[in-house]
């Protein structure tokens, strides 16, 4: 087993008019932080932001976090069809590349929980050396989409989207992310798996 893990900086962004103005307590940032801490073996520096559903402000926050060196930025909220839901537009506005597989897989997973999952417009994009992914706003949907669906015996039924995140970050020149298999088994082609250093 590897003794040391690369450090990673992760931006977490909760996008909610009501949580950011104090109408209700934000549950998005704690849910993101809890899941990532449970899933990753790497030491994580979190860069958190709680902001309203304003397109220009969301784009500016994403650019700021990428420029600050975050290899991964996860957003939660503002992906539905309501007039104020503009997270996908704000994310696409700062994209170098779109990564449509993440949104497709999230909707696939979420349909097992709620029929209204087809109302979610989550996107994922690459900007520079950073992967930015939109997650739904329901706090419980964060773990559901990252982790996927498990059978009653604990085996994986549908892979969560996080299974593909470490290899994606390898490909854009980021740190080597390693996960706890019981939370989320990351997939890499054999040729991309780092050799274990000699003891
Ligand atoms: N940051 C949050 N903290 C706690 N609960 C949230 C948060 N964001 C969303 N929710 C819950 O999930 C539901 C759906 O999220 P959505 O992003 O569509 O919010 P919304 O209805 O647009 O309102 P708002 O932007 O004011 O949170 C919300 O109505 C709320 O019950
Ligand atoms: N796993 C999961 N995904 C989900 C949901 C949920 O409860 N669980 N809610 C859906 C609903 S009702 C909507 S409108 C969309 C968009 O949510 P957002 O605007 O909160 O981002 O996410 C969907 N995805």
UniProtKB/TrEMBL annotation:
Is the Protease keyword given for this protein?
A: no
According to the entry, every stretch annotated as the MoaB/Mog domain falls at 11-157
Superkingdom of origin:
Bacteria
Q: Which catalytic reaction applies to this protein?
A: molybdopterin + ATP + H(+) = adenylyl-molybdopterin + diphosphate
EC numbers listed for it are: 2.7.7.75
Ordered alphabetically, the record's keywords are: Molybdenum cofactor biosynthesis, Nucleotidyltransferase, Transferase
**Record's keyword annotation contains Transferase:** yes
One MF term from GO for this chain? Answer: molybdopterin adenylyltransferase activity
InterPro entries linked to this entry? MoaB/Mog-like_dom_sf, MoaB/Mog_dom, MoCF_biosynth_CS, MPT_Adenylyltrnsfr/MoaC-Rel
Cite the annotated pathway.
Cofactor biosynthesis; molybdopterin biosynthesis
What enzyme class is recorded for this protein? transferase
Q: What does this protein do?
A: Catalyzes the adenylation of molybdopterin as part of the biosynthesis of the molybdenum-cofactor.
Q: What is this protein called?
A: Molybdopterin adenylyltransferase
* Organism whose genome encodes this protein: Comamonas terrae
């Amino acid at each position: 087993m590897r003794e040391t893990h690369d450090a990673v900086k992760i931006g977490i962004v909760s996008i909610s008019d009501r949580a950011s103005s104090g109408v209700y307590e934000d549950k998005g940032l704690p849910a993101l932080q809890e899941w990532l801490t449970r899933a990753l073996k790497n030491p994580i520096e979190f860069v958190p932001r709680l902001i309203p559903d304003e397109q220009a402000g969301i784009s500016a926050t994403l650019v700021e976090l990428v420029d600050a060196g975050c290899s991964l930025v996860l957003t939660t909220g503002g992906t539905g069809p309501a007039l104020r839901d503009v997270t996908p537009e704000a994310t696409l506005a700062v994209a170098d590349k779109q990564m449509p597989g993440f949104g497709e897989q999230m909707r696939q997973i979420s349909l097992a929980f709620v029929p209204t999952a087809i109302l979610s417009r989550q996107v994922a994009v690459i900007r520079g050396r950073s992967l930015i992914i939109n997650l739904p706003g329901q706090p419980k949907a964060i773990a559901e989409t990252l982790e996927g669906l498990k059978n009653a015996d604990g085996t994986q039924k549908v892979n969560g989207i996080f299974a593909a995140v470490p290899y994606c970050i390898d490909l854009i020149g980021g740190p080597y992310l390693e996960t706890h298999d019981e939370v989320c088994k990351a997939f890499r082609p054999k040729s991309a798996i780092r050799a274990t250093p000699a003891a």
